[in-house]
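Researcher: Please translate sequence to structure tokens.
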Amino acid sequence: MMFFSPHQPGGARSLWQEWHADVSCVFARDPAARNLIEVLLAYPGVHAVILHRISHRWWYANWKFSARLLAAFTRWLTNVDIHPGATIGKRFFIDHGAGVVIGETAIIGNDVTLYHGVTLGGTSWNKGRRHPSLGDNVLVGAGAKILGAITLGNNVRVGANSVVIKDVPPCCTVIGIPGRVIQNKGIKIQNAQGIDLDHNVMPDPIGKAINCLVERLDKLESGQQQPLVVIQNESCTECEADSVCHNETEGA
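Model: Translation complete:
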């Protein structure tokens, strides 16, 4: 097949060239891949990308209904939802290929890797560009959501379950909700509150807040214990209820 796609990053390429690159890149990024037959038959992420290459060409050939039908079939087959209008570069790999959603105006560069549960979604109902653009060599962790017409530069890393709603410069690592840049060109950025935002040492802000409250309550209670002891040890010789005490004693 010699259909060419001028819309893809890197210029026009034949369908066969794109398929070959998409399958070959799996061995470099998934140590579990053992042979070509296994990748072709057992990798739903590869199936989704291969079928998208076809639906994308049909979309820009103005066969839009056929393209949407093929995309719907692909979603049913692989549980990966890629709009035919999405522009995807060379050597694109979806690891595990479950629950990935890529919107119509999304643009994905070369050598990009997405893990399961990633969403490249829109934040507007207006027509026009409303989905993210990812540069080359971008890696997006499992469950991450990248929303809106934002741009992630080359070599960006997005931590698992992060929600990115702002542009990210090249060579940065971003994690959290909302996403925060924690590393830029290999230099770690320390949070102002001293919290380590690295994706493998994720903080527990709720737990930390509860611990702070418990410590504060302990201090307040310890500060109240001393006056109570003094009151208990005081005699009632000058108590305003002295007459009441004497009446009770006499009655007994």
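Researcher: Any highlights?
Model: The helical segments are 15-29, 36-42, 44-60, 64-78, 205-233, 242-251.
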